[in-house]
Fold each of these.
Amino acid sequence: MENKIDVRDFNFFYSSFHALKGLTMPIRERQITALIGPSGCGKSTFLRSLNRMNDTIAGTRATGEVLLDGENIYAPDMDVTELRHRVGMVFQRPNPFPQSIFDNVAFGPRVLGMPAGKGLNKLVQESLEDAGLWTEIKHRLRDSALSLNPGQQQRLCIARAIAVKPEVILMDEPCSALDPVATFRVEELMRVLAKEYTIVIVTHNMQQAARVSDSTGFFWLGELVEFGPTDQLFAMPQEELTESYITGRRG
Amino acid sequence: MNRQQTNRLAIGVITGLAILVVIPIALVILFVFYNGIGTINWEFITAAPRNGMREGGIWPALLGTIFLTFGTAIISFPLAIGAAIYLSEYAADNRMTRMVRLAIVNLAGIPSIVYGLFGLGAFVLFMQFGTSILAGSLTLGILTLPVVISTAEEAISSVPQQFRTVSLSLGATRWQTIRYQVLPHALPGILTGVILGLGRAAGETAPILFTVAAFYLPNLPRSVFDQTMALPYHLYVISTQVPGMPLSVQYGTALVLLLIVLSLTLAATFVRTSMRRRREW
């Protein structure tokens, strides 16, 4: 099994606050890696480090390496827009642009220089199909994306992310604003997408991590306490802290 | 007095004070309208002044004000948008940025006659544009910058942060993000600011006094390097400098100027409300 991303002794600082401490972990290709831990433990910060979205916050600093296919994304000559094209992101709350369904999905390809036409139409259709949304909305592509229900909006955001053909998709608590039915559909979708994409998901929901992921990392106060195959981590945690967290005694 | 009565009294006083604010503006408009409406007809709008400006119309002054308003828009719109984008999207919170902001605030507080003198020194004399539409538009353009920049900056900042975040996460560059996901949503707000600024510019006398306005011209301007008559200055001239001036012409001129300024302000309000109604987030 290949490592899509290799994190090596990675540290992250918000000004003087040391948010991530010496993280080392692999993220395997075409698998779902879940990051769990209590609020403020650094899992979202870590996720946003993988496509350098933290760069937009003033006063942040990173040390160590994050190797994407062996290439350090924190190297000075890294093209950040190219990186984000390869490592896409789905956010906590469904956040479509206040534009049509079509324009939402077409935005990424357009900024990468794809002209309007058959190719773009086909790409939009494929992305919506892959996100499991096509049959529901194929007759209303010109409607506002905000006319969709939250579950559909979140799948639209997934379609928008995969339209730029990323290699890795980062998901930051993608179901926390959704009802159980919509959550189930997004989880199903994640399993399907994992055949083609490498997925990293941050979740507060331990059942979700157990259901969908192949590997799980447990974060505590900016450190990676334990990392391993999901079934193993949940069935036989090696660390006492992990055990007390997943059984609900700490957290 | 119990607290319910105090409450009613407070509401009454506050409402009364709010109504008091409306009275002066309503009186000014009604007074000018009542005295000026009789003068306004097709000839008054489209004819040149005759007989030492005591008869005829105001066309050259009206046209001059239209030219100057357009000129002001052309100068202030790009400058203000650039400054507003810089301040809200790029500027770090450092000494330089604070200086730019301080400059804008102070610019708003400078008396308009000082703008006029600055325009005379900088554009008319130093840059040798002469007293011309170009010099006048530049002066008025600078005068409108503070209001246009602050409204534009506010419009840009009010675009939700998540649009930028998502756009960047899809591999868009910062400029693409601003161009496609920020400016379209901010544009109505920016336009509101520009129109408000133009309303101010259209009515100003002092800044055009030394930079463009002519007492009387027999011909219409042919290029941006020509002088022109302009309504505010024309009104000043016929109210103070011409003996035996009929009052009706003065009020008619004042009414036309007032209508121009009011319609610009109303247009700004209209753009703003229709934008709020269409906004989905």
Amino acid sequence: MKGNGKPMVVRNLSYRYSDGTSALEDVSFEITDGDSVALVGPNGAGKSTLLLHLNGILSKQDGSIEILGMPLERKNVGSIRKRVGLVFQDPEDQLFMSTVFDDIAFGPINMGLPEEQVRERVRWALTEVGLNGYEDRCPHHLSLGEKKKVSVATVLSMGPEVILLDEPTSNLDPLARRRMIEMLKGLRATKLIASHDIEMLLGICDRAILLDNGRVVADGKTADVLTDPELLREHGLEVPMLVKLFGSDALDVIREDF
Amino acid sequence: MSHFDIDEYAYLESPFHSFDPRAKFVSILVLMFSVVLLNDIRILAVGLLLAVALVLVSRIPLLFVIGRLKWVALFVLAVVVVLPFSVSGTALFSVGVLTFTKEGLLQALVISLKAFSVVLLIFPMLATMKFVNFIKALEKLHMPNRLVQMITLTYRYIFVLLNEIQRTLRSIESRGYGRRTSILGLKNLGNAIGMLLVRSYERGGRIFDAMVSRGYNGTMETLREFEINSKDWAKAASIVAVAVLLHVAAFTSSIYVGGT
């Protein structure tokens, strides 16, 4: 791993939309190899905007981003995208091909891999998300939970070292959510997960970054940041009921539960 | 929500279902052109019978086929009603100032035979494979990749958009503005369509981002999955042979009869 074990280093990143609204202001953080990091914040805090930066879709206006030891610049963007996977919130956006197979194969084919390797990667990615046998299914006919898992598989097949996930559990029914969480926990890559699902984040992530109004408000252990009722309320969030009842003891319960 | 299932009859078993999609598409296309280019009404009748035979071989339920033919019939009916009166030639009878001519009637018949034959041939061609395989066949036949991408994305998102417009209309309705035919109703419909355009535009942007983030560079490729075997070649060759024979027959009959 390049980049001194720090696959992601963001310094003083700022971004304004074309209408002048500031979306990110002076955002700085680092992510260590193998970390699972939670990205939280109220609606409109800039979470999705930040994720789009880390994959090179939005280009930085100010500050610097270093991914896997490479500065995020035009000439690197291709190789960075191969190694940093972004899973969009709405699977209808993520899954644009007509079959599950073609969708998962899309990335590896674009990477120029030979046919046999592409097939192998599709097989592996489907096993990883627990959806073997779904190759010929049409994304339109899948349940939301399945769509979201296939979305993750489309990124896994590219073999990324870092996975960015935007709201992986939103809108899922409780059982589908649980399965998604179990699956995410099993993924070996470095993860950055943007979500409002604090309980899930407590279960999966070691570290949390709290974003509000485009600024990093807190950055620390999930056990500290995501169990602080005052802090969370101040920024439009809420600690889970279990934490309200049992304080930090709830953490063990949540971690064991998933 | 249930939609018309485009792949409804793609899972039956027939010589057409097992036919390689590329060979099937090309050979039947040749047959279609052959029929369209015929002008001999007797040979066209043979062509129509052939088309019916191919539909029967493909095992696609006739009721389904007839249901689709209704729409073609509507179009053809207009031709049949207008042509005999508008083409000049030997008068068969007159209605007021309008003259019903033999030549007009023949032309109308020729057009109807062609229309029905070609539409019938679409069934063994397209309804016997999954639409996805049809797109792949086009891709493997080297159709311009932009067009392949457009068809792929249209097929993927048409139902998503249908869902979206249905939701918008439902939400308008639930607030008491039904789809009534009034200025207000039309205004609401207009707004719904406008909203759909805006949403589609935004969705398009997000899809593009998703494609780019997975290495999209302008072309959309899938892996080869078809294998053409000797049976496919035989089927394709027979269909093309029939297409050629129709024209040979038309040519010889025109010599013997002295041209029609």
